[in-house]
């Protein structure tokens, strides 16, 4: 029965792609190729690149491509198609042009993709993939929320110059958004039952990339906090301690140099001392100054 349903899905893909090719709908054809019904194979880099390429040009062109992608995501009842659409959304976030990324629908809230109740009961395999659809949709939502909050789209490269120009409130808001992404990764489903599924393997790899990128940006901002201790109010010191506590709980989620976590612990202890003393300003001296040296992620 499962093979019959897989065959039906493949036939649907072929028919839809053939129709799009006849009608010369480049964007539709690129989307269908990248989001097939195959439950075990992820979209290729070439297919995702073609999807982005089909959105190059005017704002109207970019808007049409994103609309096609999100419409397919919302309408499909196939967990395989939904996961590949989410990979496509993530690819737009990470690699799309500014115009293309700006078309992504985002209301400023959570669950805007509306996939928290997604269920594909067509086969045991797709039922299992449904759990990944629900979780990965939430991750993509948090990723886009962080990108909107930070004001740029996550890149593994540290942007120290930009961080130094932020206000304390902006810095706190960005760290909160980035840490939320990392915290969410901690809830990733157990992949043991799907370890041979290349589609899930691809998603796990992409999520790990997102975690490392988010954490690298967090450490840039943690370093900036260390250099601003003299400028932080008592209330801001409290908020810094809270976010550092959350960050420390993420140390098992994303594996990086242990020295980086040691630097976070040292900063937290220093800030907590000033908070307990009720000081609103820190008197730093040359012999008692905090310096967080950025280290390469491993």
From TrEMBL:
Give compartment(s).
Answer: Cytoplasmic vesicle, Clathrin-coated vesicle; Golgi apparatus; Membrane, Clathrin-coated pit
Q: What is its main location?
A: cytoplasm
Q: One of this protein's Pfam families, by short name?
A: ANTH
Q: Which UniProt keywords apply?
A: Coated pit, Cytoplasmic vesicle, Endocytosis, Golgi apparatus, Membrane
Tell me where in this chain the ENTH domain is found: 19-154
Provide one Gene Ontology cellular component.
clathrin-coated pit
List GO BP terms, alphabetically: clathrin coat assembly; clathrin-dependent endocytosis; vesicle budding from membrane
Task: List, in alphabetical order, the Gene Ontology terms for molecular function in this entry.
Answer: 1-phosphatidylinositol binding; clathrin heavy chain binding; phosphatidylinositol-4,5-bisphosphate binding; SNARE binding
Protein origin, superkingdom: Eukaryota
Checking InterPro entries in the record gives:
ANTH_dom (IPR011417), ANTH_N_plant (IPR048050), AP180-like (IPR045192), ENTH (IPR013809), ENTH_VHS (IPR008942)
Q: Can you name this protein?
A: Clathrin assembly protein
Give the originating organism. Mucuna pruriens
């Amino acid at each position: 029965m499962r093979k019959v349903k897989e065959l039906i899905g493949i036939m649907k893909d072929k028919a839809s792609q053939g129709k799009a090719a006849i009608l010369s709908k480049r964007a539709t054809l690129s989307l269908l190729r990248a989001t097939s019904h195959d439950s075990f194979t992820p979209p290729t880099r070439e297919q995702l690149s073609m999807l982005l390429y089909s959105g190059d040009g005017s704002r109207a062109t970019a808007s049409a491509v994103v609309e096609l992608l999100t419409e397919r995501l919302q309408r499909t009842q196939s967990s395989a198609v939904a996961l590949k659409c989410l990979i496509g959304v993530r690819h737009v976030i990470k690699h799309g042009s500014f115009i293309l990324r700006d078309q992504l629908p985002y209301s400023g809230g959570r669950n805007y993709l509306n996939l928290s109740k997604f269920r594909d009961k067509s086969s045991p395999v797709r039922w299992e993939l449904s759990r990944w659809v629900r979780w990965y949709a939430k991750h993509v939502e948090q990723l886009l929320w962080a990108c909107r909050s930070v004001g740029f789209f996550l890149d593994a490269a540290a942007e120290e110059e930009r961080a130094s120009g932020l206000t304390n409130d902006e810095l706190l808001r960005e760290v909160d958004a980035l840490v939320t992404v990392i915290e969410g990764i901690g809830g990733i489903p157990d992949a043991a039952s799907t370890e041979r599924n290349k589609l899930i393997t691809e998603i796990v790899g992409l999520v790990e990339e997102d975690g490392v990128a988010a954490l690298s940006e967090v450490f840039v901002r943690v370093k900036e906090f260390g250099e601003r201790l003299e400028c932080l109010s008592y209330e801001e010191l409290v908020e810094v301690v809270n976010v550092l506590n959350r960050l420390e709980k993420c140390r098992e989620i994303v594996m990086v140099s242990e020295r980086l976590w040691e630097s976070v612990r040292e900063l937290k202890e220093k800030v907590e001392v000033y908070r307990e003393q009720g000081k609103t300003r820190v008197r730093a001296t040359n012999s008692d100054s905090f310096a967080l040296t950025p280290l390469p992620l491993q």
